[in-house]
Amino acid sequence: MPSPVPEATSNAAPAARAVIDARDLVKTFDGNTAVAGMSLRLAAGEMLGLIGPNGAGKTTLFNLIAGSLKPTSGEIWIGGLDVSQESPERRIGRGVGRTFQIPKPFLDMTVLENVLAGAQAQDGETLLANFLRPGHVRRQEKLAIDKARTLLEFVTLSGLEAQPARVLSGGQRKLLELARILMADPQAILLDEPAAGVNPALLEIIIERVLSLNAEGKSILLIEHNMDMVSRLCSRVVAMALGKPLAEGTPADVASNAAVIEAYLGAVA
What CATH number is associated with residue 57? Predict the structure, then answer.
């Protein structure tokens, strides 16, 4: 069972509870350190950017927060609970969804079926419910289909719902993945380089949809190299390099930080 947040013992006003609170995370692979003491706090309703050169450890940090990797040390708190050892499925149930830098849809399934794959806690997945409560299962499935179609309309893919996912472009696959994770109603969404390989027209759609989700109250944690996109979406940015925190502040302050510039130039060199 996850541990609750301990009671405050000081007279100071408590800080607002974070949706995600990663504390002193370390992750090593065969003696190599990919994340070396990173802390990151995502507040409710915030859009936070995470930047850094290739190899900085950003995606490893995402994998730790999402649960596909377990930390070597450190803690991950979601909604005030320590979930450091919980599975990705449990974390989705706690309201954290994530996309991937390279989407991997089920290519032979239709676009609609791919979105439906993101539905959680469907009674029709159990044999017993199909025999004992067939009417309930049918109603639940209809609600899921209606919701999936609404989400496809939201991401501008409704006209392709009957097509196999293999026909989608790279940008459309990123929109499809966003629709799929929204089936689980996450309160926090981890976006891993949504602009990578996307044409300008689809990128504008992605930006508009992310802004709309944030306006609805969803918290967004964004990995992105496109600093124009980061500046448009995020009021706060965290930079990391070599698995460690490097700088934090507004997009303009972080982009002009000497250590950040040196890290990027060193990566290019």
Answer: 3.40.50.300
Number of domains in the chain: 2
Its domain, for residue 76, covers: 18-105+171-268
Q: Is the dihedral of CA 193, 194, 195, 199 positive or negative?
A: positive
CA–CA distances in Å: residue 220 to residues 163, 192, 207, 224: 30, 11, 12, 12
Looking at the structure, do residues 24 and 148 belong to the same domain, yes or no? no
pLDDT per position as a tens digit, 187-222: 999 999 999 989 999 999 999 999 999 999 999 999
Q: What is the pLDDT of residues 55-65, one digit of tens each?
A: 999 999 999 99
* 134-167 confidence digits (pLDDT tens): 665 667 688 989 999 999 999 999 999 999 999 9
The stretches of the chain forming alpha helices (DSSP H) are 58-66, 88-93, 111-116, 127-132, 134-154, 170-182, 200-215, 227-233, 251-255, 258-268
Residues 37 and 138 reside in one and the same domain: no
